[in-house]
Amino acid sequence: MSLFSVRRFNSVVANSLASAGYPAPVARALAARGVCHAQDLNGEIKDLLPPHLMKNCVETGKLLAQCILEKKKIIIIGDYDCDGASGVAVGILGLRLLGAVFPDFLIPDREKDGYGLSKFLVDRALMEKAEVLLTVDNGISSVEAVKYAKEKGLTVIVTDHHLPADTLPEADFIVNPNQHGDNFPSKAL
Prior knowledge:
The protein is of the alpha/beta class. The protein has two domains: 11-45, no CATH class; 51-175, inorganic pyrophosphatase (n-terminal core), CATH 3.90.1640.30. The protein contains seven helices and five strands; from the N terminus they run H-H-H-E-H-E-H-H-E-H-E-E. The protein has helices spanning 11-19, 24-32, 57-69, 82-97, 110-113, 119-127, 143-151, and strands at residues 74-77, 104-106, 132-136, 155-159, 173-175. It is elongated, with a radius of gyration of 19 Å.
């Protein structure tokens, strides 16, 4: 029995990526994760997909702008992994640059809080005088916690990339390229 599993990948794509300068193991890993061309990895802003193509992105931006103008207390609920923690950092910096007054964050403790938004985290956010909850890298499966937060009068915005269940949380807005009805060109965002 092997301790390792190998993802399937397109060897033509992997060879193309290797020819573009990526080491063979990296090229295979990228190909296994759906990267098809070296230009897919170009990090220039001009090459990014337009964010307004994502469902609810524009409306969410307008809501956040209104919350910033009204000086509402925004708390980001992130995840404790790499994309969640970096998403929180980018969110805090971005909100500050846009004029948010003292945006704050909560990251669940893996052992105590488990994963994602919970009623416990909503209560912690309320103790910090939150008026707006913005999830990063979680929330798409937090149906009960979002319902609880809405019952407590909070504005709730869910930003996530995980696959949704059949029932979505009743947040003010959900931004997730994998939600039903979202035609954003990249589902791997």
